[in-house]
User: What shape does this take?
Amino acid sequence: MNATVKYISRWLISGALLVSAGSCSEFLEEPDRSNFTLENYFTKPEHAESVVNSIYENLRNVLGGGFGGAPWMMLEFATGLANTELGQAQNSIFVRNLVNNSDNGYGATYWTNHYRGIANANLAIAKIPGITMNEAAKKRYLGEARFLRALYYYELVRIFGSIPLIKDPVDLKSPDLYAPQASVEEIYKLIEADLIEAEASGLPNADVTGRASMGAVKSLLSSVYLTMAGYPLQKGAEYYKKAADKAQEVVQMKSFSLFPSYDDLHNPAKKNTGENIFMVQFAAFVLPSNWQTSIIPYNQGISAYTDETGAIFANKEFVESYEQGDKRTAEKQFYYSSFSLRSDRTKTRNLGGYYLYKHFDNTAQLSTTSSDLNWTVLRYAEVLLTLAEASNEANGPTAVAYDAVNAVRKRAELPELKGLSKEELREAIWRERWYELSFENKTWYDMVRLRKAFNVTTKKFENYVGHKFSYGPTLKDRELLFPIPTAEIRNNSKLKQNPGY
Amino acid sequence: MKTKVRFKPLVYHLMKLSLIQCLLAVIFTGVSLANEVNAQEILKQKVSVRVENQGVRQALTVIEKQVKIRFAYRPTALPADRKITLIASNEPLAEVLGKLTRSLRLRYEIIGQQIILTPEKEAAPVRASSGALPREVNIPLARKVAGIVNDEAGTGLPGVSVVVKGTTRGTTTNADGRFDVEVPNDNATLVFSYLGYVTQEIMVGNQVQLTVALKVDAKSLEEVIVVGYGVQRKSDLTGSVGTVKGEALQERPSASLNQALSGRITGVNVSVNSGRPGGRANIRIRGNTSVSVANNPLYVIDGVILNATGLANGSTPMDYINPNDIASIEVLKDASATAIYGARGANGVILVSTKRGSKDGGRVSYDTDFSVGVLPRKIPLLNSEEFLRVEDVAYENAKKYDPVGWAGGKYVDPKTKRTNPLLFDSNGRPLYNTDWQDESFRKALTQNHQLSFTGGNSKDNFGVYLGYRNEDGLMTGSWLKRFSGRFVVDSQIKKWLKIGGALSYNDQNESQVDPLDAGGIIAMRQVLEALPIIPVRYPDGRWGGNEDYPGMEGGGNPVHVATERLYYLKTQTMLGNIYTNITLAKGLELRTTLGTNVINQRNDYYGGRTLNYISRNQGGDAYITNERHNSWQFENYLTYNTKFNSIHSVNALLGLAWQHVDRFSSQARAQRFQDDYFQFNNLGAGAVAVAPTSSTSAYGLNSYFGRINYSLKEKYLLTFTGRIDGSSKFGSSNRYAVFPSAALAWRVIDEDFMKGLPVISNLKLRTSYGLTGNSEITAYQALAGLGNYSVIFNNTRQIGIGVNRLANPDLRWEKTAQVDAGIEVGLFNNRLNLEFDVYRKLTSDMLLSAPVPSSSGYTTVSQNIGSMENRGIELGINSVNVATPNFNWSTAFNISINRNKVIALTGGADIFSGSTIIREGQPVGSFFGFVHQGTWSLAEESEAARYLKKPGDIKYQDVNQDGVINDNDRVIIGKGIPDGFGTLTNTFSHKNLELMVDLQFMYGNDVLFRSKHSAEDRTGIANSFKTVLNAWTPERQNTNIAQTRPVSAGYNTNNDTDRVQDGSFIRGRNLLLSYRFPTKMIEKIHLSRLRAFASVQNFFLRTKFQGYDPEVSTSGSAFDQGVDLYAYPKPRVFMVGLNIGL
Assistant: This one.
């Protein structure tokens, strides 16, 4: 029996030990070894760079394309100038037919990704000042962060109108988690302030690696001023002048120039140089861009890619509305309507429509199936057209305006504009914007900024509301904005849906 | 025992080896071979002895040599020089022992394989008689009484103890059940006792010849049920526990336990969602309890919790357990049963007990089955002529649906492209008419071998189990191979110390062709969509593919895809546990267990360079994913059993546990191979290296648990259970939570007033209430984690670190409160048994990856939000309809009905999950979509135009009547979760022949037949269902199918009511014919058991569903039950098998 007692006590002792070990709270402390947390980051200069890098990623996520279309296409279908062969891309079709509603996934993708970009920018802007590092570098990083935050907000405010204005990192307890909508004016105020601060951040004029540059900051600011001059803020002449001044500053940097050939617009070798001021970066085989399968006709066997989805192509009426002799509508300039067959490149196929060549990556389409093309956010032609328009609005048809618009026309092998009234020049510049910047996610923004739509038959501009698309539907008030995504309205009771949705 | 007993050395019997034994002996020599026999059978064995005036021990040796028993005795009781004469010729052992013991004035008792001899004057152990030992009273004997003791069937029972009450005098019945005994007087009472029977007392009176019928003691035969941290007799249970024995699993041998469990237990819905080997099963116990991802039950194998989650392609750790190793499965359903698992019990608990060693000598068993699976039904698809005709019609209609494209020359007459001489003759007629279902599905062969060696005695025993399974899938290219081995040992090494353990290793290799959530080109899709005009291979050996015919969506043919898209899962599982059981005092035991589960899973993938839509764009795509899941647990608990005042009995449990789970995964990937040769075996041969990834996570659990079972007079049973769990997944303030439960049961049958109702043989009422939890969220949700971002600068990938996870330090456990009431009724001597339960489960503080406004930069946060309810009833009926010596017919029926309802969600917001919507007031798993009203007719042309539609287009209901059809017109259109399901099994046996008919049914569930999207909604770019021949034409306007047109001319495809089909079904799950060879026959070849069987599984299926099988899901989303997007069909399996024991 003594032996038994001994064993019992042994076990009780070991049991007691176990209990005390268990009450050590450390057993239930598990660090996340795969990821940093907010508490243990932002201690080194490298952390400043990495947080700024993260802001760039979300620029990418609205691009691309698959069997469901892609978010960027919504800004094209909303113009009434685009068409699709992809029957299952319901989101595209709803927008195109002007029966869009708030369940549209494209809008939700814009909203979610852009706000994610803003959150990373907010994080950078809040945390980088606390890092001990080279002050000049610190300033540049903060400049990049502010430029990107402005860019994200600029797109969101034009798409959705009055939206929550988040300027600081959010946690579960912050009131910003369920933020109310700020007025459009306040949003632009932040955009303007961020860009002005970025202007003072010491960024280089141009950056061939693809980071934000002073050229990008000033180009964006000119675009912002141009928009602020028009709808919905209607700040008028003062802002047209500001827009013209900023555009002029970009021109005077002499860091950018128009490409001699339209091919250069989609030549990977010209990324981040020449005409390209700011781009969303991609690299073949590493992070390839993937809209190539969307801009080729549906299963006609022209591409090395297996997926040929025909997700977006140009309305025939629009392409045929270009001026006679406009080089941009010549085959394989901005558009293509025939192509060789994969099975036999000596044979050419008539595609029965105008597909987008300005986003076409020849190497990828013909052989590598991995596209190296960047997506252009800001290019010099737009700056010139902004300069022309803003200058005409501020000062009337001066040489500055003519020179700028004629530079663009010259490349299109069109006669120079001259001797026009302010009103005539205004419409001529608009037309040039429509033709030059087509399918680059610019046209719809111009339409709502001006509240004008281009009539492909009369080739005149008419009021946005009431404009009838060539294929039937008519623009209504509500289409001046996209609906705030359903989920966002449901998850944040403080939000009010845009009228008409 | 106080006195010293010396056992004779164990004698091994040399047996003539039969052929099989020879084989086995080669594999495993040195194992004692002995038959499984109980005392009764031992006594029935025939022996021949001829001992004349020889030593008594020699006589015993002679007997030992003939029957597999050994004698144990005290040397003083049986002096070596004692001489006897014993002659018997082929007489039952009982008879011979009777002669022997009578002459020596000994008593014998059989314990296990031993016969213990004791002098008659020593207090004979009186088994099964309650109360104190009889006093020794010397009473003069007056007269003799003779008689026979029978069992209920009227057969004589040998070995029954017959004792004169109050004395130790008595005898045992002989082989025929006869006895002679001397009694002092007419007032004497004889006590008849026998293990497993109800002890009977009979007053002799003036009778000289007695006929006694002993009744089987239902209680002692009653099954013992494994519950969390212990066992209980079924009659003592207060909770709702379902059980399945290993023998039942053997009736339907299957690759995985989940498949085997289907239909066995009420309230347990097993949906075997894929027909590939090993399947993919979804198990829900009493409905979906949580809107978080984890609705799977907790699996506990021999006390070891299987913690691994997120294994590749929807598999679970349960898939890597050899079902043949299972001795029993218990499913804990209500809170009383599951609360002992506290935080992890909310989804129910499945306890698996594996087979152990043998308690009565060595045994060998070998089970094998061979089967062939065939495709039970085909989906009608277009043949070559029909496909080309549909294409022609589509072309004709292009100008109606796309006048602009038509005018621009976009459409070309398909007849002009039928020029490829490999596919068409000179008249443009197709050369091939391939039936891709015939080409893809094969006769799938399976072989399964299970070998076990067990040995030991009541104290020490061990078992070795080996298994091999090789199963081919119905679909070309899919298979499963499993090698498994397991060793168990249990040893009572000291009177107060028992130790044991089990170690199993399972190596499973699978080739899977049905990836979860695949919407692109996969083999199963191409079965439906490969063109009939294309061959498998051309005469020159090249693969045929849809791209060979211009204008097609050019996926490869299914045989090509299945052959060159490789998805291999190689899983090594080790499951081990050791335990010690220490008896600290009478009734007080301390058990310590240490368990571990290690799963190493490697997923090898290669997509060939020529596979369109899969890996052609990447020039070949290979990756290897390695996942390592570790978990260990350490548990200590005390149990105390006591009984006082003979009416109170208490069983108490108190314990503590630690668990730790970690996981590490890594992936390497490369693309652009010059040759398919390397597959995934040389990633360095890929020109493009995709960035590698790795990640790790870990969590710990610390728990304290206790339970008290109290029973009053064995009639009133009360259970209190509680567990406190702490988890590292939660913030420090909410780490611990308490999960209590209480239950009450009343064995009404034991009340006196029930004695007057002999028709009722069992009646028990029970009810329980309690809380259980769910913590199955991913780790670290309480921390504000940052994540990786990838960006390109200067054409180089660079890394960003930015926001990733919104921290919720206030996160706490999800809780499910469950109330359950049950009744168990037995009628007609338990020939009709009925068990009925009704329950309500209310889950609150639901752990939900809840949406937050994404303006915050985050989209979700793990939050405790919302509540959900499940109500249900479960009914199980077992009846013995006919019971005669030669023919038996029994029926088992069960049905479970569950209603699920989401009660509240974050601010009422709908949550979209896969193809389903989670909405307040609706069941989870509700399908969401448009209302399909057929097609627009010519008469409706102007109305159609308002919706930008033409006659011949699909007509969707404008639900909100706003004049446009958009997402606002979507409504709930069905649900994948059934209203009810169940099983009806009839078993007929005639002597040793048994026929079992097992039917499965399910009703009230819909299937969202998503395959229609590409195989019916659109035509002319791939093959289609034959239903498209019924498309709209001006002559046939009353149809659901839109007018045929080229895809690029625009078409409608949506989740709509046309895709939702009634998925109710009745399935002939198993038709089994088995024959158990009679002992007499197989004894000659030295076998103890030989059973042969033949079965047909899935022998019929009645359903309105048009796809392969309505028990389906191809989605990994938690509630997407009943979603069919290119499902893998379930085979009809013809099987033959043998069970051999020796």
